[in-house]
DNA sequence: ATTTAACCTTACAGTTTTGTAACAAAAAAG
DNA sequence: CTTTTTTGTTACAAAACTGTAAGGTTAAAT
């Protein structure tokens, strides 16, 4: 979706994008533009900073209150203050007119790729040789795959995302159970033990190390 | 981590970043620089395109084969071809020298924020009033929380990430099982039914609609 | 209006997951 | 060196998850 009052630029952009396989939407006017954007919910928004009656940065700021739609800011002035503001208001990228069509296409591609990683929730976390698929709850190494149980997943997720740091038993307890009061403290130990066994199955021994009195660390 | 042969720039950058709370690493030399980067595994890499004995873009290209470390390319020439290449090789951003310190800091902040979204696996997907925590496999609405089973999670994830689109039964089968041949077709129906019952528990009735002969759609 | 194909529900049994207890091992403290 | 604390292992029972069959319901097709 392109939101730009300069019709010449808009239609040129539209053609460029359509020629490259994108579906393009241009709003008829800029009344209630925020509602229109939210309703249409485009995959990407190309937003001009200088709109009549609307402040592009303010629009972005308001959009970001409820939406994560990827936004590339477009502006005619090569103005670093604008750039700074756009980024801090949550623009995903920024491009100045006149733009190089190839660069614009690449930037659009890059932004869409990044956002689709977030959207599709394509959550494969890589740890050493392991590919941890947080959707399926599986860990793959080459052609061997092991399935983690829910508890094992929670522990491994927590350790992987806090790598190189000692993670306390309390942290893990809190990550595992809402109310840790009535859970046997040893239960965590058992679950750690089970996770270690599974990691061993894919050839990772001693990566989940104990730091006695402190917690655990994933090496 | 800063990889730049211009010592003046490097130390200036280092100071700027350290003054803003970042921990900075400068490699001693550029021998086996790829291995060094992979070993250190920094949160962010500031990479100069023009290194002695090393081609920055080639380095980026090789890095991307095994790593998702966020990279901001830095260059002295304001060269659009370089920019295009960097982006298509997987740079997360691009900045030209001489840089505006504030802009650089903002860009660094933006890149780190984006990547930490991926890293921390901050996977709470919002659907209407529901907050779907893909880590815990739970759905919350206000103060009520329901726990999804693995199958229910897979189905709900798939539907949520393909909202407003009809999802075929085959798609769901493929998402659920590696080999769908030996799975009773009715089993999917049962799992859909179970998911519907759980959604009902948080007040969402009829959101998972059947499109007979076509599939399902999450309204 | 009747038939047919697609989808839904319930109940049940096999399997997996999970928490606990009992005992063992290892590191820290005395 | 001995005691204490912390962590690890195994076995077991309760609970949860999952696939299938049997029979019911719905909507499209004839």
Q: What's the total helix number of chain A?
A: 8
State the secondary-structure class of chain A.
alpha/beta
- The backbone outline of chain A, from C-alpha atoms, is elongated
- Please report the total strand number of chain A as a whole number: 10
Question: In words, what does this structure look like?
Answer:
2 copies of one chain form a homodimer. Chain A has 219 residues and is an alpha/beta fold. Chain A folds into 2 domains: 2-119, Rossmann fold (3-Layer(aba) Sandwich); 124-218, Orthogonal Bundle (Arc Repressor Mutant, subunit A), CATH 1.10.10.10. Chain A is 44% helix and 18% strand. The first copy, chain A, is built from 8 helices and 10 strands. Chain A has helices at 7-19, 33-40, 56-66, 80-88, 101-119, 150-161, 169-176, 185-201, and strands at 2-3, 45-48, 71-75, 93-96, 124-127, 130-133, 138-141, 144-147, 208-211, 215-218. In chain A, the strands form 3 sheets. In chain A, strands 1-2-3-4 form a 4-stranded parallel β-sheet, with helices on both faces. A 4-stranded antiparallel β-sheet of chain A has the order 5-6-7-8, with no helix packed on it. In chain A, α6 (150-161) packs across α8 (185-201). The longest helix of chain A has 19 residues, at 101-119. The radius of gyration of chain A is 24 Å and the shape is elongated. The two termini of chain A are 45 Å apart. Chain A binds a DNA duplex (30 and 30 nucleotides) through α8.
């Amino acid at each position: 979706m392109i939101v730009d009052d300069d019709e010449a630029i808009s239609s040129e952009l539209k053609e460029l994008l359509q020629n490259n396989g994108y579906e393009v939407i241009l709003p008829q006017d800029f009344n209630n533009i925020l509602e229109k954007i939210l309703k249409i919910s485009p995959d990407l928004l190309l937003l001009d900073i200088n709109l009549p009656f609307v402040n592009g940065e303010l629009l972005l700021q308001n959009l970001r209150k409820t939406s994560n739609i990827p936004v590339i800011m477009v502006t005619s002035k090569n103005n670093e203050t604008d750039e700074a503001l756009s980024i801090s208001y949550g623009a995903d990228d920024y491009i100045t007119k006149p733009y190089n069509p190839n660069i614009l296409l690449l930037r659009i591609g890059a932004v869409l790729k990044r956002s689709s990683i977030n959207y599709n929730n394509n959550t494969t976390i890589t740890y050493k040789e392991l590919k941890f698929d947080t959707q399926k709850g599986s860990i793959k190494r080459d052609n061997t795959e092991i399935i983690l149980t829910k508890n094992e997943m929670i522990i491994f997720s927590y350790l992987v995302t806090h790598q190189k740091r000692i993670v306390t038993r309390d942290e893990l307890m809190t990550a595992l159970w809402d109310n840790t009061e009535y859970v046997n403290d040893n239960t965590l130990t058992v679950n750690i033990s089970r996770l270690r066994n599974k990691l061993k199955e894919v050839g990772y021994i001693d990566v989940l190390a104990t730091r006695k009195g402190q917690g655990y660390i994933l090496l």
